[in-house]
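Posted in: Protein Modeling Q&A

I'm a second-year student putting together a small comparison for a lab meeting, and my supervisor asked me to include a predicted structure for Cytochrome b5 domain-containing protein. I've never done this before, so apologies if this is the wrong subforum. The sequence is pasted below exactly as I got it from our records. If anyone can share the structure token output, I'd also love a short note on what stands out.
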Amino acid sequence: MPGPDGGPRLANVWVYRGRAYDLTDWISKHPGGEFFIGRTKNRDITSIIGSYHRDPEKIERMLQKYALDRDAVVEDIHPKANAPDFLFKENFDSWRDTPHFRFDDKNDLLHRIKARLKEPELAARLKRMDTVFNVVVIGLVVAYFAVQGLRLFDTSWMPLPAFVIAMVVLRCGIAGYGHYAIHRPQKGLTKAFVSAFDVNYVALSFVTADGHALLHHPHTQSEVDIKKNVFTFMMDLPRWFRVPIHTVHKFGHTATGMVVRLLEICKLTRQVGIADMYGSWKGGLPHFIGAFGVRALLISELVVFIAMGDVWAWVLQFVATLWFSTFLIVASHDFDTDAHEHPDIDTDDWAVDQLEKAYDLKIVGNRYIDCFLSAGLSSHRVHHVLPFQRSGFANIATEDVVREESAAFGVEWLPAKSFVTDRLPKQCRVYLGSRSRPAQEHGWGFFREHFSPAALKTCADYTIKGFTGLGTV
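Accepted answer (user: helix_wrangler)
Welcome! Here is the predicted structure, written out as tokens:
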């Protein structure tokens, strides 16, 4: 029987440390939520278990109940990680390209850091910091609706420049909460709240929860990491058309595209079977409610501003939020530099690898404020070593521990990079100033890059994909 993507339907297999397991019965029992187990079917989950669990050895013992008592074979792994093909390079193959790290060395960096987290005083502080983080988020949500309400009620109370700046800040802050909600156990209301990541107009958190948490974090900057591919789609566009076409593309996402994409996901879920994804409809419904709810909110805001005759206020905050957030999300890794400029790190220590491939970011210089201004990335290196922590404030509180333990492993702790003076100018040169990929590949000049039939067709296709939501993020 063919699978939902037209290819062969693979058996119910999850691969851990080269061995095959059938976790079907564990989907609805997983304390971290059904979604994370359901989405990792036919993948190598070694790095996910090692990085997202405080005690992976305990998980390994539990897995023995579901062992198939054989080594994994290539037929157990979906060649494109059970994800859409367009997210990966053309010759990507999960069996070959998924990186392998050791997680069984009790003296490695990750074990040393996790041991420190068990210290009672630090554990209690991390719990308090999570609570403070949540309280701040509630304040941001109240301010979010208040700012829009003031602007619509009386523009003199909320002048246009103040409105645009406030919306950029508030959307980034709320998206920062959505970012951490993606990393929390997908249980209860959290399943709905992950869609807060959508408010900055950049992505669809319903699929980002997979692409970010399960593909990007465990396999950073490898071929599995779709984050280094999806944000370069705009590089196919001619450079002078890039900003307007991408902006219209993302407006299409907001207006209709992501709703269409959600309907496609509903269709796919029915084809795959709700049991394989969530264990039951009860397990999946909050994810769908949150996703459709946030899309309805974003569309409703647009409609209300049009109805009130204040469409330019909405347009300006949309454009400012979109581009600030787009560059911000990829600012904390070297996605904008050629691979040959950064030689591969020869280590099987996963935590060392993560530290070497991530940046901390600063915007105003205060880590707690920057945590929200940067959508949760101010203490980004800690976040990559400890992706299971529940808030950006907890990461800030853990930074001293991670820095101290890293020093013993010879990992240099670099100062945070300024988004405004360092990362943004470099990104603008690459993402906005460089020739399109077709122009570079074929040696086209300026005119052919912008006005050849192939270039114009690319622009048209890219625009249409925004409004249809298919073949795009």
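A couple of things worth pointing out for your meeting: The chain has a mean pLDDT of 90. The first strand starts at residue 14 and ends at 16.
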